[in-house]
């Protein structure tokens, strides 16, 4: 199984399972920016390796300063982590919820974090007939039964942002809310839809961001979170010292200034998403509209996702089996939106499998 370790993007498992070298795969199973990392990443790796004889800045000052400037957020409301994954874990460890409401299907690390502290989860099942969008009624129903909401904005694997009215009802519950905005930087007008600017002024809102998807640097591990400075201090006290390495800190501070790359990415996605969605729909697949850089797709009942995954993998194409997300059945898969040539390759390979 490609998701042996719980996630997509595992090229070593793909090599072992399907017998091709990892360079031979086009990876649609993890949702990375297909433009590759910004040029400054190579420059930093080449020029700053000599600094590895020193410990990284334990207060991550340069990068926190860059984030503060970029998003107009006070520095003491920012905590940088070893990927959003570390911050998910730390936030749950800090909050110690007994019952965490999760909107299914959702990213599996929320469950992992909750189960590590022996917490329980309250399942809110997103409905196909609502296009897998969270509803105000879901929030109202769950609010009395949980002591934490942990939600993706946009959600993975559905690709949907939480609507403004639902966000309002969420904040009205006065329960702690963690919003995972790992993919929000792909959304046009990101700064208007993100709740980062509310988080640092709030007592119960925590926003987690990833830098690894948009800047295509998952190997370096980098994310940050925004919350009230009192909470940031306490969450930081649970973090392992020097958890963000020196190269990650330098890279993070530089990529945020690469406005040309940011613009290129946003332009690519707007064009490519609508093209890819319509090509997939033309094949008779049900494509759920997405606010970000991946698509949730439903197969006709006669095709089992595991079979499709295997047949495509033998042809060098990796997809994410979305039936592994609680709340979805074996007709769902998730794919990243990639460059036109790669997306065309996907369409041609899936046609071979269907015929
Ligand atoms: C929704 C979501 N949040 C967080 C993460 C973790 O991101 P990072 O690479 O920054 O740890 C992922 C990774 O796939 C994800 O899909």
From TrEMBL:
Annotated EC: 4.1.1.81
Cofactor: pyridoxal 5'-phosphate
This protein's name: threonine-phosphate decarboxylase
Keywords: Cobalamin biosynthesis, Lyase, Pyridoxal phosphate
Keyword Protein biosynthesis: no
InterPro entries in alphabetical order: Aminotransferase_I/II_large (IPR004839), CobD (IPR005860), NHTrfase_class1_PyrdxlP-BS (IPR004838), PyrdxlP-dep_Trfase (IPR015424), PyrdxlP-dep_Trfase_major (IPR015421), PyrdxlP-dep_Trfase_small (IPR015422)
Classification via Pfam families: Aminotran_1_2 (PF00155)
Aminotransferase class I/classII large domain location: 24-350
Keyword Lyase carried by entry: yes
Role: Decarboxylates L-threonine-O-3-phosphate to yield (R)-1-amino-2-propanol O-2-phosphate, the precursor for the linkage between the nucleotide loop and the corrin ring in cobalamin.
Molecular-function annotations in GO: threonine-phosphate decarboxylase activity
Catalytic reactions of this protein: O-phospho-L-threonine + H(+) = (R)-1-aminopropan-2-yl phosphate + CO2
Transmembrane segments: none
Organism this protein belongs to: Chengkuizengella axinellae
């Amino acid at each position: 199984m490609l998701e042996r370790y719980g996630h997509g993007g595992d090229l070593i498992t793909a090599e072992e399972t399907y017998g091709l070298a990892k360079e031979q795969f086009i990876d649609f199973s993890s949702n990375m920016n297909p433009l590759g990392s910004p040029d400054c990443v190579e420059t930093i790796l080449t020029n700053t390796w000599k600094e590895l004889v020193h410990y990284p800045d334990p207060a991550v000052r340069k990068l926190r300063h860059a984030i503060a400037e970029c998003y107009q957020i006070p520095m003491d409301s920012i905590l940088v982590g070893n990927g959003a994954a570390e911050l998910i874990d730390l936030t749950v460890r800090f909050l110690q919820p007994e019952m965490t409401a999760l909107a299914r299907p959702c990213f599996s690390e929320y469950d992992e974090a909750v189960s590590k502290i022996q917490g329980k989860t309250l399942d809110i099942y997103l409905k196909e007939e609502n296009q897998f969008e969270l509803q105000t009624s879901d929030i109202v129903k769950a609010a009395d039964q949980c002591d934490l909401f942990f939600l993706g904005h946009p959600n993975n694997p559905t690709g949907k942002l939480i609507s403004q009215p639902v966000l309002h009802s969420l904040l009205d519950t006065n329960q702690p809310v963690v919003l995972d905005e790992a993919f929000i930087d792909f959304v046009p007008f990101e700064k208007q839809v993100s709740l980062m600017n509310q988080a640092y002024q709030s007592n119960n809102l925590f926003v987690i961001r990833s830098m690894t998807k948009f800047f295509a640097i998952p190997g370096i591990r980098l994310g940050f979170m925004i919350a009230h400075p009192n909470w940031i201090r306490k969450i930081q006290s649970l973090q392992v010292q020097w958890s963000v390495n020196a190269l990650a800190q330098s890279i993070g501070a530089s990529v945020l200034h690469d406005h040309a790359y940011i613009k290129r990415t946003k332009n690519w996605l707007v064009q490519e998403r609508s093209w890819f969605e319509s090509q997939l729909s033309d094949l008779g697949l049900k494509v759920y509209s997405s606010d970000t850089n991946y698509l949730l797709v439903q197969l006709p009942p006669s095709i089992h996702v595991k079979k499709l995954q295997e047949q495509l993998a033998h042809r060098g194409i990796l997809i994410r089996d979305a039936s592994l997300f609680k709340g979805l059945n074996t007709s769902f898969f998730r794919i990243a939106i990639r460059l036109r040539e790669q997306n065309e390759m996907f369409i041609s390979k899936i046609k071979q499998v269907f015929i």
